[in-house]
Amino acid sequence: MPRNDDVRFTSCSIKLPPLGHNSSITFFSKLQFTSQFLINSLMKPQKPLNFNFNLKKKSITNFFTNFPKPPNLLSSFRFHPPLKSSLLCSASLALSDGGNAESDLSGSTNQTVLKSPSQTQITSRDEERVLISEVWVRNKDGDELERKDLESEAKNALKASRPNSALTVRDVQEDVHRIIASGYFASCMPVAVDTRDGIRLVFQVEPNQEFQGLVCEGANVLPSKFIEDAFRDGYGKVVNIRRLDDVINSINGWYMERGLFGMVSGIEILSGGIIRLQVSEAEVNNMTIRFLDRTGEPTVGKTRPETILRQLTTKKGQVYSMLQGKRDVDTLLTMGIMEDVSIIPQPAGDSNKIDLTLNIVERKSGGGISAGGGISSGITSGPLAGLIGSCAIYHKNLFGKNQKLNVSLERGQIDSIFRINYTDPWIEGDDTRTSRSIMIQNSRTPGTLVHGNQPDSNSFTIGRVTAGIEYSRPFRPKWNGTLGLIFQRAGAHDDKGNPVIRDFYSSPLTASGNTHDDMLLAKLETVYTGSGDPGSSMFAFNMDQGIPVWPEWLVFNRVNARARKGLVLGPACLRLSLSGGHVVGNFPPHEAFAIGGTNSVRGYEEGAVGSGRSCAIGCGEVSFPLTGPVEGVIFADYGTDLGSGSIVPGDPAGARLKPGSGYGYGLGIRVDSPLGPLRLEYAFNDQRTGRFHFGVGLRN
């Protein structure tokens, strides 16, 4: 939250001193409150932060108000007129032995004062009724009010006090409270004058001043415009306490909505109609880390404190925000090395600041061995079609810096991938959260995506040896960019492992004519990721550029993009997606865009629609809840190579009579799982052929 440097910070609150019987009472008195008392009153030590956002307003309010208050402190600034108190007004009934109806009210001398019920025990005398002939509203000197609208406000507030009515002391006191409760008056004194026509009841009132200016202190993050707009309607008007209460609530609400530790701590009306508003904001002083074991006992941590602290967006000197704190907790948990994280705010000594303690419970081990299995959509035939087994040795917190090393092997009926990957999620000394990834990989994938099954029942695979380095960083909220340099050597091999340069139709399998193609690719990628809600959006753009370091190395440019948008339609959700790409230059045929399959055009086998230099694929689907985590889905897909299949080297699509375009439609079910949505779908293509598809995650 940016600071508002136009306003300086002080801290105080409303405090009303004890009053004597003859005190002249005003609604606002001198503010006497120190910032240390505010912090001590606002905070409960050792209470972990609650990030339940449905209760965030209640959490902040409790955090500020759950402590015993000093005598007479108005910790809540809502005006509540007491029914049995002389705190805000004098509720005694003065009898003046005057007889002259026009006598000066302030000059009456022989007065008999009846104490209000709040000052003595109620007796039968207090309940005696006095017949009132007239009811006047005057200023504190007994003269008529200059503003008749204020006189009307006071008279309209009266309920029991009417001409020719019999009143008790309690009736008068309650009407005094009603006048004060109207919000326009700082004090009210009821005086009874004995005249020739009977007893006249005079309410001597002191109106509030007219609002002429505002001084706001302590609002470091509260926008000046918000304060000005809140008070703008009151300029030149008599200050109304109820209106002030609404303004204070709106300011406190601004802090609550943003989860900020701030509130109005005091307000005072100065001479000349100037309102001084005191705002108290709890700034972060120090942040410390405490490592705990699973039983809550202190222990020695494996992660370096600076590695944890630099992940936090909460910084020293900022006004602490619960929302920002929750995001910081989520960020620490996504590092993958923490089991539990909590933030505890505490008063920072004698200052108006807070110290934050991060309680960290690390995972038992930063490394280990894992094994699993999966399905490859590229395998469409065979008794164990598509099944893949995998194992990995990994470490998630190298050197206590959250650096990750992963060595993995995946093996299927035809597919195999051996990969060594090292990732530094945040390069030390970098302020832009740049990550670095170094990868070495040896993979083998089926060549059927582009070249299909061979008529002679012989099959071949595409082998790739890849090594590269990539740098990635966020450059805007929800946007991430990646730059990389990748070397790749790729070639085709038969089922015995021998190099192959042509397929059954004599189409070339390499661009150079050699047993393998070498290329050095410069990679540029940008990704926009929405909130992940059903109605969110996603966009990704990728470009690879071949760099001719050696004359025989391939030079080509490949771009592709994909976008997805969700629309919530009552209980259902409509998802629209579009993807496409194009290649220019001398590229291997097996790098052509393969169209058709589980993540392309359903109803077709993988790559059965076409393979071209260009492609465009669209999809629309409607999902709807069935029961629990199970959803139903209806979908339709369309894909085309835009007539570019024939200009792929060797025209593998034309040799296999691929149509070049096609559509599919069908229905399926999805089940939420820790791996993502599990999809089982059945689709028909435009050839009236049906096919089952199984996948994990949303369709690309």
Automatic annotation (TrEMBL):
Query: What is the protein's given name?
Result: Outer envelope protein 80, chloroplastic-like isoform X1
Q: Residues annotated as region Disordered?
A: 100-122
One Pfam family per UniProt: Omp85
Q: Which InterPro entries match?
A: Bac_surfAg_D15, D15-like, POTRA
Keyword vocabulary terms for this entry: Membrane, Plastid, Plastid outer membrane
Q: Where in the cell is it found?
A: Plastid, Chloroplast outer membrane
Q: Which gene encodes it?
A: LOC140010794
What are the leading ranks of the lineage?
Answer: Eukaryota, Viridiplantae, Streptophyta, Embryophyta, Tracheophyta
Q: Which PROSITE patterns match?
A: POTRA (PS51779)
Record's compositionally biased regions (Polar residues): 103-122
Keyword Glycosyltransferase: yes or no? no
